[in-house]
Amino acid sequence: MSDCVLVCNVFNTYIFLYRGLLIMLRALAPIISVAPVRAMMDERFSVLVENLPPAAPVTVQSHHYSDDQDDWEAYGHYISDHNGTVSVSKHLSFGGTYSGVEPMGLLWSMCPVPGSRMGLRLRKKDVCTPLVVNISVYSGHDGFRDKKPLASAITERWYMAPGVKRIEVNENGVRGTLFIPPGPGPFPGILDMWGGGGGLHEYRAALLASHGYTALALEYFKPGELQTANLKFQYFENAFRIIQDHPKVNPDSVGILGLSLGSSIALGLAAYSNIIKPRACVCIGANHTNGLEVHESKDGFINLEQAIVDENNHHIWRNIGLAMMRDPSNLVDVQRINCPVLLVSGQDDQNWPSVEMADDITQKMHDVGKAHQLTRIDYPDAGHLIEPPFSPHFRATNFMVKDKYKVIVLWGGQTKPHSDAQEDSWRKILVFFQQHLYSITSPKAKL
Ligand SMILES: *[C@@H]1O[C@H](CO)[C@@H](O)[C@H](O)[C@H]1NC(C)=O
Ligand SMILES: *[C@@H]1O[C@H](CO)[C@@H](O)[C@H](O)[C@H]1NC(C)=O
Ligand SMILES: *[C@@H]1O[C@H](CO)[C@@H](O)[C@H](O)[C@H]1NC(C)=O
C-alpha cells in the first residue's frame, strides 16, 4: 500500500516537472504579435516581437501575395533590447527596405520579391477581401530567405469597413462601383476618378465609404485606350447624377476626387458643366489641360513621340504637359470654378508638370479674386502617384498605352518622403471633404 503511494507520488512529481519545463520552454520561444490584427488600410499597426535573447540581431519581414499573384515583401533589421523585445513602432531598423524608426515601413516599403516581373504596381483588386500580410521574425541580419522564421503572425488590412455596401453600377452607360456607408444616411457623395491607365479601381472609393461618403469608383475607359478614349461631358455628368440621385446621398453635397487625368476631368466639370455643381474638388497630380469633348479634334490625347526616356528607358511625360501648357486654349478656364479646390502635388512628379499646373491654376484663380477657394499642398520628393496611406511607393511601373503597346512610366518620388506625403495628404483630403461636404449634411460634423 505505502509503496504504491510512494511510486505514485514520484511519478506525479516527474509529470509536474515535465509540465513546468514545457511551459517554460513555450514561454521562452519568440512570439510576434500585430495589433490590431484586423485594421483599415489607412490605420497604423504595431508589431511586437518578444521572448528573444537580449541584444539579438533579428530581421522582421512582411510578405503579401497579391490578387495579381505576385509576392511583395519589406523587411527591417533590428536588435532586441535588454528585455529581448523588438517593437517596430519604437525601435530603429538598421537597414533593409527601410531604416530608422518607421512604424509602418513594413507596408510602405514593400517591393516585389527578387526575381519578380518588372514594373509591378500593387493595387487591391478585390476589396471584399482584406490585403493579408504575413509578418515573420528571423534570427540574424543576413540570409533570412534561407531560414525558417522564429515566429509569424497574420494581419488583415481592409479597404471596406464592416457594413459598407458594394454595388456594381451599369446605368445610362455609366460603368463603375458604388460604395455606401452603413447607417441611415443621407451621406455626402464623392465621384472618384483615377488617371490615364484606365480601368476600374475600387479601393480608394471603398476607403472613402469607410469614412462616411457614398463614393462611386468610375471607369471611364478601358486600359490601353488613353489615346482613343472619347471623354464626353455627358458621361461624367451622368455618373455624378447617379450619386446625387441615390436615396442615401444628400444631393447638395457631392464632391469630386481625381488623380492625374481624373483631376483634369474634375476641373473641367467644375468649370463648364451647366448640369452638375460639385461642392468641392480634390485634384492629386493636378492636370488642368482640357480633355473633355476635345479629344477628337486634338488628334489623340498626348503625343507620345514627345516623351523623353531616361537611362532605364522609363518614359517621362512632364515635358509633354509643359508643351501643352504653352497654348492657353488647351487649358481649362479655372477662373470659372466656383467651388473649393484642393490641389495635392508631388514636387518630384516626373509624369506630369503638376506643380507648374498648380502654379498656373493658383495664379488664374487669384487674378479673378478666387484665391480663397484654393488650397494647395506640395510635397518635396513625392511623385505623381499619391495613393492612400501605406500603399507602397512606385517610382516607375508598366503602363499600357495602346493595346499590346506597353511602356514603363516614371512617376517619380523617393520612397520615404513619398510615403509621408501619402499619409499626410490623405488626412488633409478627409478634413477638406469633411469641411465642405459634411457640414452640409450633418451639423454635428462641425463640432
Ligand atoms: C522590460 O520588462 C519589464 C518587465 O516586463 C518592464 O517593466 C520594463 O518596462 C521593460 N523595459 C523595457 C525597456 O521595455
Ligand atoms: C507566414 O510566413 C512564414 C514564413 O514564410 C510561413 O512559414 C508561414 O506558414 C506563413 N503563414 C501563413 C499563415 O501563411
Ligand atoms: C492630363 O489631361 C490631358 C487632357 O485631359 C490628358 O491628355 C493627359 O493625358 C493628362 N495627363 C496625364 C498624366 O494623365
TrEMBL record:
* InterPro entries linked: AB_hydrolase_fold, Acyl-CoA_thioEstase_long-chain, BAAT_C, Thio_Ohase/aa_AcTrfase, Thio_Ohase/BAAT_N
Tell me where in this chain the Acyl-CoA thioester hydrolase/bile acid-CoA amino acid N-acetyltransferase domain is found: 42-171
Where does the sequence pass through the membrane? 16-37
Task: Please provide the Gene Ontology terms (biological process) for this protein.
Answer: acyl-CoA metabolic process; fatty acid metabolic process
Q: Where is the BAAT/Acyl-CoA thioester hydrolase C-terminal domain?
A: 232-438
Which residues are annotated as active site? S260, D349, H384
> Is Disulfide bond among this UniProt entry's keywords?
no
* Claim: Transmembrane is one of the keywords in the record: yes
UniProtKB keywords: Membrane, Transmembrane, Transmembrane helix
Any Pfam family: Bile_Hydr_Trans
Q: Which organism is it from?
A: Cynoglossus semilaevis (Tongue sole)
This one is known as Acyl-CoA thioesterase 17
Output the Gene Ontology terms for molecular function: fatty acyl-CoA hydrolase activity
Q: Which family does it belong to?
A: Belongs to the C/M/P thioester hydrolase family.
